[in-house]
Amino acid sequence: MKTYALGIGPQIEINTGVNFYNDFLMQTGAACSIKFDNEPVVITVSTDYDILMNRFDALCTVDYWLINPPINDYCNFFGGIGAGYGIEAWKTDFTLNSVKRIVFGFNWIYLDGFMEPFIQLAIQQNSFVNANFNTDTTFTFPVSSGIRFYF
């Protein structure tokens, strides 16, 4: 019989990027990530605030790790692909956001698999559409750091 553990924990992130109109963005945010110990899938629910454009967003992403080779007894490298959906609010406008992304980073396993600190970088394409069907695309580079605890 297989046993599974669920890892859950907080993460913080800084996100920079640019859209096709050359608007620069700089977001900071917090998130909660969830991972099953025997599956290469990470689910993240995040909120970000753009300090340059005064906008707020909420996003749910699912990443699938294609690789996760060990570097030593405690440290692993991971890389994969992901997708997500979210909403964004700024000024008087709401938009829907779909995300395609590539992720990679490092994770460390401590205390017999109980604690997993990590750091990751994503390369993300965000496609937006608002109620008037106006569209926009941004390319962003979120850097995240966090810790998951397995139960």
Describe this structure in words.
- The model has no long low-confidence stretch (mean pLDDT 91).
- With 151 residues, the chain is mainly beta.
- An eight-stranded antiparallel barrel has the order 1-2-3-4-5-6-7-8.
- It is elongated, with a radius of gyration of 16 Å.
- It has no helices and eight strands.
Write the layout of secondary structure elements.
Layout (H helix, E strand, L loop, with lengths): L5 E14 L4 E13 L4 E10 L4 E13 L7 E16 L2 E16 L6 E16 L4 E16 L1
Q: Which descriptors apply to this entry?
A:
about 75% strand, Porin, about 150 residues, mainly beta
CATH fold-level label: Porin
* Helical run tally: 0
**CATH hierarchy, class:** Mainly Beta
- Count of β-strands: 8
Examine the secondary-structure arrangement and name the CATH architecture.
Beta Barrel
For the termini, the CA-CA separation is: 17 Å
Shape: elongated
Structural class of the helix and strand makeup? mainly beta
Count of spatially separate domains: 1
Beta content: over 45%
Strands ordered across the widest β-sheet: 1-2-3-4-5-6-7-8
User: What's the story with the biggest beta sheet?
Assistant: 8 strands, antiparallel, barrel
Mean pLDDT: 91
Low-confidence stretches: none
N-to-C SSE series?
Answer: EEEEEEEE
Quaternary structure of the protein? single chain
**CA-based gyration radius:** 16 Å
Short description:
The chain has 151 residues and is mainly β. The chain has no helices and eight strands.
